[in-house]
Amino acid sequence: LSSQERSVRLRRWYELMMENKDELARIITAENGKPLKEAQGEILYSASFLEWFAEEARRVYGDVIPAPAKDRRMLVLKQPVGVAAIITPWNFPSAMITRKVGAALAAGCTVVVKPAEDTPLSALALGELANQAGIPAGVYNVVPCSRQQTAAVGEVLCTDPLVAKISFTGSTATGKILLKHAAGTVKRVSMELGGHAPFIVFDSADVDRAVAGALASKYRNSGQTCVCTNRFLVQKGIHDKFVEKFAKAIERELHVGSGFDAKTTQGPLINEKAVEKVERHINDAVSQGAFIVTGGKRHSLGKNFFEPTLLSNVTTKMLCSQEETFGPLAPVIKFETEAEAIAIANAANVGLAGYFYSQDPAQIWRVAEQLEVGMVGVNEGILSSVESPFGGVKESGLGREGSKYGIDEYLEIKYVCFGGL
C-alpha cells in the first residue's frame, strides 16, 4: 500500500480503538488485574501510537546528497525492513503492541505478534479491530502460546530467516537469550529491557511535590512497570520529613482491591511468584536492619494481593537495592552528598528511567546529564508520552520507541548512486 493508504488505515484503527475503549480496558483488567482507571489510561495511550504513526507514515523522507563528481547523483532511500516479530509483556498488553506495530505498519512492514502467555486476549482484540479497520489479512498476525511453548516460539521467531526484525519488551535475562538467537541471522533488534529506576530527592526539593511524584512513579500498576521507581535515595536534611509524608500519602491514597472496583488503586500482582519476590526482598532487608514503615505483608483479599510497602534504613547491600522488585515495595536509602547519590544510582548495570527532585538549576543540569539512563524525570514522576523517545542504556536495551525516532527502527537506509549522467 502507499504511505497515504497505510496512514488512512492506521487512523481508522485508532478511531475503532477509541470507539471500543471501555471494552478494551475491561479486557486488560480481567487479564492482568490492573485497576480499571489505569486500564482505561493504557487504552488511550495505546491508541495514541496508532494516531501518531498514522501521521508519521507520510513523513519517511530520504535525501539527495551533493555528489563529488558532475556525472553522478547520490540518493538515500528508506525502505521497510520486512517481517517484524513483536514479542510483548503482560504489564502493558495493549500499549506495548501498538507502540511497536504502529511504527512497523507505518513503515510498510508486516508483523507477527507473540503476546505474553498471561495476556493474549488484548492482542487478539486489537487484531479484530485491525480487521475492521481494513488492515489487510496477513499484515497483523497474532501467535498466542502457552507458558510451556513460549521459549520454543520465541526461538523460531528469532532464528527464521524470513523474519528481518525482532522487537522485544521484557526482562533483561530473556532479552539476552533472544539477542543470541537473533545473532545467527544478524537480525535488526529493538530491546526494551528491565530497569532499576532511582528516584533521588535532594535537600532543595519541594517535598510535597516529590511525595506526589513518588506515589505515582512507584505504585502505578502495583509497581509492575519497567519505569517504576525501584530505589528511593533521599538526602539527609529532608529524609525524615519525606519518609513521614510518603507513609501518610500511601495510607491515605492507596486502596487495594479488585481492578473492577472504582475505589481500587492497587490491584493484584500478576501471579504468586511475583508476590514471593516482594516478600523475599522485604525479609532480606529487615534481616539486615531495614524498618517497615507501612505495609509489609500479603493483603487479606487473596494470595496475589500485597500491601503497598515502605521501608526505611535501607542500604545498598540489600536485595531490594540490587534487583528490580516489580512490586509495591518502596525502599528508602539515606545519602549525604550529590556525588554519593549519583554513584549509587549509576552502580546498576541497567539504565532505563531515572527521576530526581531539586529546585537548584545548576544541580538539575549536572544530575540530568550524569544519570546513566535513557529517560530522566526532573521534578516529574510520570514521563511516558507518544511524542517522546522511550528506551534505555546499558543492559536496559537497544533502540527507541515512540516519537519521531520510533519509525526508524523498522526502516533500512539504501544508498543509490546514479552514474554516467
TrEMBL record:
Cellular localization per UniProt: Mitochondrion
Superkingdom in the source lineage: Eukaryota
Reaction catalyzed: succinate semialdehyde + NAD(+) + H2O = succinate + NADH + 2 H(+)
GO MF annotation: an example: succinate-semialdehyde dehydrogenase (NAD+) activity
InterPro entries: Ald_DH/histidinol_DH (IPR016161), Ald_DH_C (IPR016163), Ald_DH_CS_CYS (IPR016160), Ald_DH_N (IPR016162), Aldehyde_DH_dom (IPR015590), Aldehyde_DH_Superfamily (IPR050740), Succ_semiAld_DH (IPR010102)
GO BP terms: gamma-aminobutyric acid catabolic process
The keyword Lipid biosynthesis belongs to this UniProt entry's keyword annotation: no
Pathway: Amino-acid degradation; 4-aminobutanoate degradation
E.C. numbers: 1.2.1.24
Biological role stated in the UniProt entry: Catalyzes one step in the degradation of the inhibitory neurotransmitter gamma-aminobutyric acid (GABA).
Designated name of the protein: Succinate-semialdehyde dehydrogenase
Origin organism lineage: Eukaryota, Metazoa, Chordata, Craniata, Vertebrata
